C-alpha cells in the first residue's frame, strides 16, 4: 500500500504573528460554532496573520497581500485553537473577495501543529464582489489543535483579500454523497474497433429483455436487438442487462445506444482514438520527469522548471544523504520519474513500470500484430526525438539511469544492492511544483526487493538497448549481475512497513517472485545456465501466478512468466510456460464473461484494490499475451473488451483516463497537476490513468463521501482522494501496454 498525506505545510511559521490567541472551545455538542469572532464585529480579535497587512475594514477583515511570493502559504490569515471530534460533521463557510479578481484563496481546516494534516480544503477563485462559499465534511480525528486558515500567497503582484462571516459549525447533518452517474446505458465512451467486440451494460430493474437501438450521429437507427438480463451485479449492487452489438462494423463517430428510454454517451467505431491513446499514455512520462525542465513547446501547458536539481529552495537529488544511521555517503540520484502525485522516487515501483514500458516495445518486436515503429523515433515529441532510437526507449532510459544511480557503490556496506527509495523527509502539501519543494531529501535503506527490481529491469534493458547503444547495454548488464550477486548474499533485507513518512513504504516481505523475475530476465538476456537453473528451481515457476488481483509491484512473478513465454529462448519446458499463460488467460476470460460489466477482474469479497483500474488492465495483458501465443480470437476480443471498463463501461459511467470520453477523470491527486486547487496549474495531461475504485478508502475525503461503498462505487474524481484517484507511473504503464495492443488490432 502507498499512503499519501496532504499537509498544510509551513503553517508553523504562520502562527508566530497571531493577533490574539483563541481559547480551546468545548467540542462534541450539536450545532456548536467553533470559530470565534467570525463576523469580525470585535475587530481582528482571535485572528492571526502572516506576511500580510491585515486589519478590520467595514465589518470585514481585509489583508493587503504582497506580490512576489511563491507558495500559497507564504501569506495567510487564520485562527487557531479549533477543536474537532472524530465522526462529527462540520460546515465550513465564509464570504471572501479579491481585488483584482481572479486570485485564489486556499481555505483550510487542518492541524495547527506537525505534521499539519489537512482535513478539509477548497480553493475558490475570488471575484471583486464577495462570494459565499460553504463546504461540509466529517472529521476523521479528535483534535484540540486545529485551525482554520486562508492562504493567499503565490502571486507575482500585490492584491487585496477580504473575509467575512467565517464559520465552522459542528453537529450539522452529514451530506449524503450521490455520484452523478449519467445515463443508465453504460458504454465505452471512447470507441469500439470495427471488427472487435461491442458490449454495453444497462442499469434497469426490468426483469425481461428490452429492445435496444444503435443510432448514428444523425440520430438514425442503424442496428437493433434485445438486451440480456443479468440480474444483480455484485460489483456494483445494481440490477443490469447486457447489450452485444458487435455485428455492426461500420466506422463512424457520434454513435449512441438507446435502451429503456435512456441514451448513452456518444462513442466512435474506429481505431483513431486508440492510436492517440497509445501515444498519450506514454507521453504521460515526460512531464513526470525529475531533474529536467519540461519544455512547453513539447507539452503545451505543461512546461515547468526542473525539479530537484539543488536550486534553492529545492534541495535536490544531486547529492542526497541517507536517513540518519543508514549510510555515511551521499549519492547523485537525480533524474527518473516522480512516482505518483508526490515528489518521491521508488525503485520497486519504478522497476515494474519500466519493465512494462519496455515490454510494450518488446512485444512490438515479437508479436504477430506488433509494429515497433508506432512508438519509434519521433512519435512522442521528446527532447531526445531524432536520435535514431525508438522514443519509448528514450523515455524508459530516463528512469533506468535513475535506477542505476540507486545502487550502493563498491566498497560500501551492502555494495551492489539498491536503495529502496528517495523522497522528502516530511510530506509536502498540495499544490506544489517539484522545483518549489523545500524539503530535505533522504535515501532510504537498501532492500532485496529493490535490488532484484534493478537486476530485472537492467537485464531486460541490456538486450533491448544493445542495437542502439552497446555501451549502455553493457553497463546495464554489469549492474544487473552485480545486483543479482548482492541479492543472493542478502536475500531477506526488507523495507520497513512503518517507513511511510514523506513517501510510501512500498514494503514487501516475500521476494521469491522478485528472484524469479530477475533470474528470468538475466537468462533471457544472457542464456546462461546459472539463471535458467534458478528459474526452473523457483517455486514461482510452477505456481499459479495469475491470481484474481493480478500482478503489480509487489507481485512480479507474472512479469517473469510473460517474458519467458514470449521472448525467444531455449528454456527447457518453454511450451509448458506458454500453456500456463494461456491457462491464466482462460481464468481471466471466465471472470470477464461472468461479470455484466465485462471485467477480467473480480477481487475476493468484492474488495477492490488500490489502483484497481490498472489491475483490470494487467489482467487484460495476460489475456492479450495468450492471443500473441495462440492467435485465438477469443483472447484478442477479451483483451480488447477489458478496455471498455476503463473507458466508461462501469458503474460510475466515467472514463478513468483523462481526456478520453465525455465524462472522464481529470482531478487526479497530484501536487503539480493541481488545477482543481490552483487555476494557474494544469489538470493531468491527456492519457493519465486514475487509480480507480479502492474499497479501503484510506483518505479522509473518500472516508467521508464513500462510506459503505460497494465495489465499483469506491471512487471519487477529486484531487484530495489519494487512495482512489492518484496517478502513478506503474498504472500508466499498464494503460500504455493495453492501448498499444488494442491499437494494433485495428
Describe this structure as you would to a colleague.
With 746 residues, the chain is α+β, with helices and mostly antiparallel strands. The strands form seven sheets. Strands 1, 3, 4, 6, 9 and 11 form a six-stranded antiparallel β-sheet that branches. Strands 13, 15, 16, 19, 20 and 21 form a six-stranded mixed β-sheet that branches. A five-stranded antiparallel β-sheet has the order 2-5-10-7-8, with no helix packed on it. Helix 3 runs parallel beside helix 5, helix 7 runs antiparallel to helix 8 and helix 9 packs across helix 10. The radius of gyration is 27 Å and the shape is globular. The N terminus is likely disordered.
Percentage of residues assigned to helices: 25-40%
Task: Give the end-to-end Cα distance, rounded to a whole number of Å.
Answer: 36 Å
**Gyration radius, to the nearest Å?**
27 Å
Strand content: 15-25%
Instruction: Report the principal-axis shape.
Output: globular
* Mean pLDDT over the residues: 94
Largest sheet: 6 strands, antiparallel
Count of DSSP strands: 28
- What structural category characterises the helix and strand content? alpha+beta
Secondary-structure blueprint of this entry?
Elements: H1 11-14, E1 32-33, E2 48-50, E3 53-57, E4 60-65, E5 76-84, E6 89-99, E7 106-111, E8 118-122, E9 131-138, E10 143-151, E11 159-170, E12 185-186, E13 191-192, E14 199-203, E15 211-215, E16 221-226, E17 228-233, E18 238-244, E19 252-259, E20 262-263, E21 267-269, H2 272-283, E22 320-321, E23 330-331, E24 345-346, H3 347-366, H4 391-405, E25 418-419, E26 421-424, E27 441-443, E28 446-447, H5 448-464, H6 470-489, H7 512-526, H8 529-537, H9 557-566, H10 574-593, H11 612-630, H12 633-646, H13 700-705, H14 729-744
Parallel strand pairs: 13-21
Antiparallel strand pairs: 1-11, 2-5, 3-4, 4-11, 5-10, 6-9, 6-11, 7-8, 7-10, 12-14, 14-18, 15-16, 15-19, 17-18, 19-20, 19-21, 22-23, 24-26, 25-28, 26-27
Amino acid at each position: 500500500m502507498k499512503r499519501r498525506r496532504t499537509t498544510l505545510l509551513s503553517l508553523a511559521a504562520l502562527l508566530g504573528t497571531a493577533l490574539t490567541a483563541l481559547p480551546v472551545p468545548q467540542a462534541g455538542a450539536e450545532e456548536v460554532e467553533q470559530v470565534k469572532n467570525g463576523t469580525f464585529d470585535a475587530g481582528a480579535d482571535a485572528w492571526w496573520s502572516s506576511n500580510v497587512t491585515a486589519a478590520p475594514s467595514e465589518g470585514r477583515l481585509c489583508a493587503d497581500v504582497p506580490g512576489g511570493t511563491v507558495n500559497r502559504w507564504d501569506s495567510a490569515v487564520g485562527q487557531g485553537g479549533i477543536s474537532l471530534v472524530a465522526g462529527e460533521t462540520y460546515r465550513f463557510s465564509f464570504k471572501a473577495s479579491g481585488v483584482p479578481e481572479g486570485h485564489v484563496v486556499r481555505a483550510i481546516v487542518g492541524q495547527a501543529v506537525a505534521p499539519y494534516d489537512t482535513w478539509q480544503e477548497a480553493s475558490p477563485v475570488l471575484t471583486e464582489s464577495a462570494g459565499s462559499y460553504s463546504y461540509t465534511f466529517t472529521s476523521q480525528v479528535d483534535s484540540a489543535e486545529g485551525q482554520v486558515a486562508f492562504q493567499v500567497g503565490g502571486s507575482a503582484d500585490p492584491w487585496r483579500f477580504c473575509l467575512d462571516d467565517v464559520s465552522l459549525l459542528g453537529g450539522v447533518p452529514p451530506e449524503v454523497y450521490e455520484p452523478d452517474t449519467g445515463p443508465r446505458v453504460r458504454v465505452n465512451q471512447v470507441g469500439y474497433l470495427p471488427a472487435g467486440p461491442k458490449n454495453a451494460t444497462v442499469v434497469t430493474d426490468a426483469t425481461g429483455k428490452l429492445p435496444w437501438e444503435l443510432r448514428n450521429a444523425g440520430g438514425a437507427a442503424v442496428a437493433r436487438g434485445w438486451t440480456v438480463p443479468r440480474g444483480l451485479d455484485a460489483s456494483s449492487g445494481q440490477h443490469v442487462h447486457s447489450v452485444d452489438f458487435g455485428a455492426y462494423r461500420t466506422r463512424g463517430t457520434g454513435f449512441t445506444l438507446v435502451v429503456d428510454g435512456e441514451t448513452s454517451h456518444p462513442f466512435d467505431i474506429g481505431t483513431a482514438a486508440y492510436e492517440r491513446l497509445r501515444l498519450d499514455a506514454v507521453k504521460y512520462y515526460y512531464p513526470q520527469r525529475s531533474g529536467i525542465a519540461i519544455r512547453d513547446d513539447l507539452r503545451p501547458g505543461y512546461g515547468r522548471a526542473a525539479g530537484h536539481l539543488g536550486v534553492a529552495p529545492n534541495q535536490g537529488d544531486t547529492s542526497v544523504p541517507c536517513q540518519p544511521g543508514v549510510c555515511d555517503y551521499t549519492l547523485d540520484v537525480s533524474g527518473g520519474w516522480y512516482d505518483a502525485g508526490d515528489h518521491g522516487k521508488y525503485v520497486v515501483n519504478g522497476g515494474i513500470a519500466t519493465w512494462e514500458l519496455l515490454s510494450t516495445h518488446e512485444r512490438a518486436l515479437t508479436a504477430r500484430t506488433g509494429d515497433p515503429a508506432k512508438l519509434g523515433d519521433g512519435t512522442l515529441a521528446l527532447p531526445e526525438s531524432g536520435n535514431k532510437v525508438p522514443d519509448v526507449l528514450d523515455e524508459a532510459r530516463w528512469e533506468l539511469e535513475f535506477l542505476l544511480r540507486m545502487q550502493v557503490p563498491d566498497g560500501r556496506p551492502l555494495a551492489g544492492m539498491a536503495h529502496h527509495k528517495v523522497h522528502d523527509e516530511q510530506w509536502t502539501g498540495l499544490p506544489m511544483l517539484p522545483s518549489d519543494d523545500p524539503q530535505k531529501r533522504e535515501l532510504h535503506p537498501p532492500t532485496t526487493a529493490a535490488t532484484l527490481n534493478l537486476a530485472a529491469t537492467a537485464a531486460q534493458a541490456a538486450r533491448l538497448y544493445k542495437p542502439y547503444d552497446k555501451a549502455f547495454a553493457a553497463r546495464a548488464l554489469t549492474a544487473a549481475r552485480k545486483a543479482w550477486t548482492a541479492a543472493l548474499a542478502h536475500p531477506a533485507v526488507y523495507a520497513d512497513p512503518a517507513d511511510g513518512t514523506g513517501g510510501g513504504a512500498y514494503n514487501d516481505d516475500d521476494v521469491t517472485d522478485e528472484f524469479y523475475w530477475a533470474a528470468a530476465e538475466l537468462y533471457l538476456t544472457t542464456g546462461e545456465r546459472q539463471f535458467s537453473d534458478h528459474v526452473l528451481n523457483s517455486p514461482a515457476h510452477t505456481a499459479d501466478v495469475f491470481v484474481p488481483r493480478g500482478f503489480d509491484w509487489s507481485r512480479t512473478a507474472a512479469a517473469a512468466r510473460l517474458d519467458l513465454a514470449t521472448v525467444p529462448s531455449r528454456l527447457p519446458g518453454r511450451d509448458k510456460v506458454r500453456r500456463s499463460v494461456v491457462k491464466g488467460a482462460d481464468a481471466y476470460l471466465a471472470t470477464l464473461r461472468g461479470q455484466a460489466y465485462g471485467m477480467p477482474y473480480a477481487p475476493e469479497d468484492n474488495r477492490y484494490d488500490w489502483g484497481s483500474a490498472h489491475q483490470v488492465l494487467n489482467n487484460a495483458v495476460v489475456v492479450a499475451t495468450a492471443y500473441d501465443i495462440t492467435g485465438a480470437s477469443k483472447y484478442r476480443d477479451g483483451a480488447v473488451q477489458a478496455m471498455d471498463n476503463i473507458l466508461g463501461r462501469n458503474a460510475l459511467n466515467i472514463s478513468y483516463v483523462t481526456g478520453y470520453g465525455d465524462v472522464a477523470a481529470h482531478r487526479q491527486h497530484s501536487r503539480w497537476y493541481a488545477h482543481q486547487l490552483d487555476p494557474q496549474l494544469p489538470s493531468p495531461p491527456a492519457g493519465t490513468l486514475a487509480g480507480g475504485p479502492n474499497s479501503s478508502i484510506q483518505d479522509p475525503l473518500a472516508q467521508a463521501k464513500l462510506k459503505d461503498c460497494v465495489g465499483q462505487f469506491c471512487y471519487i474524481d477529486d484531487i484530495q482522494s489519494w487512495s482512489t484517484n492518484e496517478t502513478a507511473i506503474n498504472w500508466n504503464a499498464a494503460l500504455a501496454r493495453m492501448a498499444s495492443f488494442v491499437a494494433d488490432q485495428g
